[in-house]
Amino acid sequence: MTTSRTVLVTGGNRGIGYAIAEEFVAQGHRVAVTARSGEGPEGTLTVRADVTDAESIDRAFSEIEAELGPVEVVVANAGITRDTLLLRMSEEEFTSVVDTNLTGAFRVVKRASKGMLKARFGRIVLISSVVGLYGSAGQVNYSASKAGLVGMARSLTRELGARNITANVVAPGFIETDMTDALPEAQQAEYRKNIPAGRFATPGEVARVVTWLAGEDAGYVSGAVIPVDGGLGMGH
Ligand code: NDP
């Protein structure tokens, strides 16, 4: 039987985060999501938090701890893109993406680690992207932030591994969400041609890899980068 855990998913009000939260609920866990707007799926506790603001994260954790108990599984999923070519990219466009995607994950994981160290149990899952290691023209900011998550998970593994805390990266390829809907149709078709699977994935296909990493069977998996990309990034 699966142990019921307290889970936090950042950015759980839509897209991949919503699907991850739904899957954890379906598997019988106590699930909280952070949202700046909207709500998480049915059966979740929605707390307001912005990952660029450490105080709001601290308040969100205190609320979750009071309602559901200490967070045992954290999924750093909140992320943004601000794509443009290098010469047009402002420093603000670079740092704001890093602040949300990379420093945001740091803030959330740091706060979560307090309870995990005390409990001598924790599962940390960082949502990166195939472009973190593959690279992508027009995404110098985004791919740098996503590659940074790999170093973060591996350092967390070395620092916290002996306390029964794992830290892994999930690297999705193209997933059907608002983020990819925003791409022009011609560009979407071009991407599909390069994906060995010949299609984009559903958010649920990412969610079930995340719940597996957080579960009993993955206790000896740490510092890994698990692609969910239909073969797009093979070898990276
Ligand atoms: P969406 O754009 O659909 O959703 C992004 C989520 O992140 C929203 O819940 C959003 O909240 C939240 N978020 C953004 N900024 C902040 C912030 N400062 N504080 C708190 N929450 C924030 O994205 P996806 O579901 O597509 O992507 C989820 C993750 O997966 C991201 O990290 C993304 O980089 C990654 N990914 C996505 C891929 C794809 O093909 N879709 C491919 C590879 C990786 P709000 O609604 O309030 O804006």
UniProtKB/TrEMBL annotation:
UniProt signal peptide: none
UniProt cross-references to InterPro entries, sorted A to Z: KR_dom, NAD(P)-bd_dom_sf, SDR, SDR_fam
UniProt cross-references to Pfam families, sorted A to Z: adh_short_C2
Occurrences of domain Ketoreductase (ranges): 5-178
Coiled-coil boundaries: none
Family classification: Belongs to the short-chain dehydrogenases/reductases (SDR) family.
Protein name: Beta-ketoacyl-ACP reductase
The species this protein was found in: Agromyces tropicus
Lineage: Bacteria, Bacillati, Actinomycetota, Actinomycetes, Micrococcales
